[in-house]
Amino acid sequence: MDTQQVHSKRSSLFLQSIKQNHNEALNVTSCFSFSLSDQLFQKGWEYFHSSFYYISSTEKTWQESRDDCVSRGANLMIIDSQEEQDFTRRFPKRMWIGLTDRAQEGTWRWVDGTLLQRSYWYSGEPNDEWGEEDCAEINYKDVENSWNDMPCDRQIHWICEKKMAP
């Protein structure tokens, strides 16, 4: 073999090694993702549009609900599409979502710090009716626009969201 053939052979072996390592890494990642997904399904999570959702069976305050979501590796649900809003209709109960104006009255922010852009408030909401309605809930009174502001210390169900990497 001449030098060029040796170099070509080494390059070919090197590329094969890279491909094999890449495929092994993909297999490990795939197994991990499947394992995580499987665990979430077993623990009562529902999958929808690249996220898992946990709907509580008990009632807590907004902060207790958020703490529960965080303990599960998630956060209160952030509704950023019509599809997600429609998804909430499956659960005919009042539920906390990850929206609050506690930091500044009238400035609604999601739990990730982003400002509210698109909203689905029930007619006349938010109204801060009791003077301290700083947290948002899904209230199934209206099929399309179901959000309501209410005092954060009320105890209702909640919905957590765990976004999965694409």
UniProtKB/TrEMBL annotation:
SUPFAM superfamilies: C-type lectin-like (SSF56436)
Any GO MF annotation of the entry: carbohydrate binding
Domain of life, source organism: Eukaryota
Signal peptide: none
Residue ranges constituting the C-type lectin domain according to the UniProt record: 48-161
Keywords, in A-Z order: Disulfide bond, Lectin
PANTHER family for this protein: MANNOSE, PHOSPHOLIPASE, LECTIN RECEPTOR RELATED
UniProt-recorded name of the protein: C-type lectin domain-containing protein
Organism: Salarias fasciatus
